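Lecture notes, continued. The same structure-token format from the folding unit now serves as the input rather than the output. Read the line below as a description of shape only.
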């Protein structure tokens, strides 16, 4: 009877797995603040992608961790044809063509200061329009290398429209855009910044991105940002983080007919893992509850570091 009246269900097809990639041939590197999450070399990343596809996970989002020597203030390496993330995209699309591959369009893995764009002359803010110009080039480069979705995660104004226009002009009408549309300036990104090395580059993992990411206090402003991305042509609208922003997910769900994604971010994952490690929370049940809540709030799909384990459990 309980199953007859159950309103929300999770399935492996709900998940997008964020994956970290590194150069070289080394063993998978653990990330201290994200137990169970690894940085993979390209060959191991391909194996992981095969395993995810087999479990029914339809999509992955790839994040590169670059060596510090490839970073500079302009994020130059982001526009290199030989960029690590592009080598990873090519390898994954070749080995598992049906798996949807998404890449972040933002400069933070590439900048020495760890910000998502280039800075203004006084270095007090990210230069919006100069950054958009770079992101547009980056998006076209990623499309040429076979990504299915470019995912601008930078929160610059006007970048969705500019990217859509450039993709179409370069004949990549089929390349879709997932907007990180309501992305809050959140403390929950700390472990991710360890994972991609932007914390080490910046000398802090609590890098202040308040001049371009949303104020966690603001609900209406989040809806404005989402409406702008939708009007500019985003195919999927994302809310991020997820767990502390369920009200925003629900409002976005009610405000648009487009697919809505939510990102259960690194800090949300770390919290659950840490409490489970202490024996204070039950990992399996907390994991499931955290994700069912995000889906119930209105997310059509969830980016989560639990994707693989959840898919394995749900497939049984
Ligand atoms: C950067 C980016 C961030 C995340 C995804 N892309 C962090 C940030 O804005 O500093 C966070 C993901 C996570 O915490 O899991 N463009």
């Amino acid at each position: 009877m309980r199953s007859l009246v159950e309103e929300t269900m999770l399935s492996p097809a709900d998940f997008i797995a964020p994956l970290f990639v590194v150069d070289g041939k080394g063993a998978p590197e653990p990330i201290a603040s994200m137990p169970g999450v690894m940085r993979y070399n390209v060959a191991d990343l391909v194996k992981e992608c095969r395993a995810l596809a087999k479990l029914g996970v339809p999509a992955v989002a790839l994040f590169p961790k670059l060596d510090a020597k490839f970073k500079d203030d302009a994020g130059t390496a982001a526009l290199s044809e030989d960029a690590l993330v592009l080598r990873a995209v090519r390898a994954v699309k070749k080995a598992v063509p049906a798996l949807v591959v998404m890449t972040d369009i933002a400069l933070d893995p590439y900048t020495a200061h760890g910000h998502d764009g280039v800075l203004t002359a006084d270095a007090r803010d990210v230069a919006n329009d100069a950054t958009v110009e770079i992101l547009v080039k980056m998006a076209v480069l990623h499309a040429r290398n076979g990504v299915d979705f470019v995912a601008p995660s930078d929160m610059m104004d006007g970048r969705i429209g500019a990217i859509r226009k450039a993709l179409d002009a370069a004949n990549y009408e089929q390349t879709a855009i997932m907007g990180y549309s309501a992305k809050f300036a959140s403390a929950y990104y700390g472990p991710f910044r360890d994972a991609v090395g932007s914390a080490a580059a910046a000398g802090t993992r609590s890098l202040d991105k308040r001049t371009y990411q949303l104020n966690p206090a603001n609900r209406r402003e989040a809806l404005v940002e989402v409406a702008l991305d939708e009007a500019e042509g985003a195919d999927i609208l994302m809310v991020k983080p997820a767990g502390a922003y369920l009200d925003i997910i629900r409002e976005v769900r009610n405000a648009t007919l487009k697919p809505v994604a939510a990102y259960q971010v690194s800090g949300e994952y770390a919290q659950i893992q840490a409490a489970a490690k202490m024996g204070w929370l039950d990992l399996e049940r907390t994991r499931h509850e955290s994700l069912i809540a995000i889906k119930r709030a209105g997310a059509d799909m969830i980016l989560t570091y639990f994707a693989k384990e959840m898919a394995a459990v749900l497939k049984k």
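Point for the exam: The chain has a mean pLDDT of 96.
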